[in-house]
Design a protein that fits this description.
The protein is α+β, with helices and mostly antiparallel strands. It contains one helix and five strands; from the N terminus they run H-E-E-E-E-E. Helices cover about 20% and strands about 45% of the residues.
Length: about 120
């Protein structure tokens, strides 16, 4: 009886972990207007949508850094991406973490999707 109960609890544990993993891979934050990004959002993951105004690429010996200036309808924010970006992208959707550099808010992009 005890052995059977232990088996059921282990199976339930693994099924729950699989379900949680699937949900965590499909959930994304809602789109946040750039004007609504504040210091209280530091270290939070957000999603923004906008147009690339400026691209600055920095190549170091260790990594490639792309700095994007993103504009939504009115406001702009700098986004740091630690990979190369397709230069044909104009409109993008970005998921990343809000951070601060030199007393300015920015987004450390984890995922950038080109909107065609």
């Amino acid at each position: 009886m005890q052995k059977r109960l232990f088996q059921i609890s282990i199976i339930t544990l693994f099924v729950s972990l699989i379900i949680l993993t699937i949900f965590s891979l499909t959930l994304e934050p809602k789109i946040t207007p750039i004007s609504k990004i504040e210091r209280k959002n530091l270290d939070e993951f957000i999603k923004i949508k906008g147009r690339i105004e400026k691209i600055t690429k920095i190549n170091t010996t260790h990594e490639n850094i792309t700095i994007l200036k993103i504009r939504d309808k009115i406001y702009t924010i700098e986004t740091i991406f630690y990979k190369d970006l397709d230069s044909s992208c104009n409109d993008v959707e970005i998921i990343g973490k809000v951070s601060e550099y030199e007393n300015k808010l920015q987004i450390e992009a984890k995922k950038i999707k080109c909107l065609k």
